[in-house]
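User: Predict the structure for this protein chain, please.
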Amino acid sequence: MLKRRVPRVLVSGFLLTVTVSGLSACRTDPSVAAYVGDARITVAELESAVDDRLEDPDVAAYAGAQGEEFTRRVLSLLVQEEVYVAAAERFGVRVDDGDVRRRIEQLLGGDDPDSVFGQLAQQGIGRADVVENVRQQLVREEVALAEGEVQPPTEAELRARYDEVRGGLAEFSFGYITVPDEPTAAAVLSQLTADPASYSAVAAQYAGALTLPALESRPPDQLPGVLADRIQAAAPNTGFTLPVPEGGSGVIVGFVEGVVQPSFEELRPDLEREAAEAAQEAGGRLVLEVRDDLGVTVNPRYGVLEEGRLVAGDGGVVDILDGEEPAPAGD
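Assistant: Here is the predicted structure, written as structure tokens:
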């Protein structure tokens, strides 16, 4: 469901489970960290990939707390990259750097890139991982489109979806000013209803913890509890007065400008993102089929399969089997 002003998700589907089926258990080269179909991820490549990520101090701090789990995580990401390369080749799709850059900019919206990437780094997710993850999002979309699993939404479809959801995205534009007594409250409310544009100037005269300096827009579930019912009941450009709750002094003047709904253009990016997520889900299923066909074998020094995840363990060469126990090494 679309929601207004929800933080944008830059990393979606991060670290897909590397479970696959139909594998051979005869690949045992100790210099190889994992086999993905005919491709090899060498131990040297894995170690280099880990070192590259550790150059970011925030990622390094995260990795230090994770120990060998971080190496397994990086190996899973490298396996995933190989799967997506194979999927793009199989379905004849191409995502270039410009496509990735534009999608990242779209996902960031007005958020500060350094702040967002910094938060992700604290979770052990480096910039290169973000770029690759977004590339994979786009590959899933393109695969779904190429195979006819979905169609790009038309303008009419986007507008129809907007009509469906806009009612649930309504917000109340309101403010409240705390004044000393009832006569002052009556005068202030009269002034606001006569001239709603004067709200900020009036509020400045009674600045304080219980005064909003400017009108705000919030959904019903985020309205101030003591005022919520009165705000929702008020007609546009009207208000109410209410004594400050027990323990305080003065009178609260509430003013309600009205109900605000996002315009179609304001909501368009979210509508398009919703359609993209549906395409990613459909394309993801096709990518998993490619993964199953390729087969993945992991060097046992990096872990074993447990409930579909690569975890710490020991034993023979590990086949990552979908829903089955790891098989021992064989010839």
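The chain has a mean pLDDT of 84.
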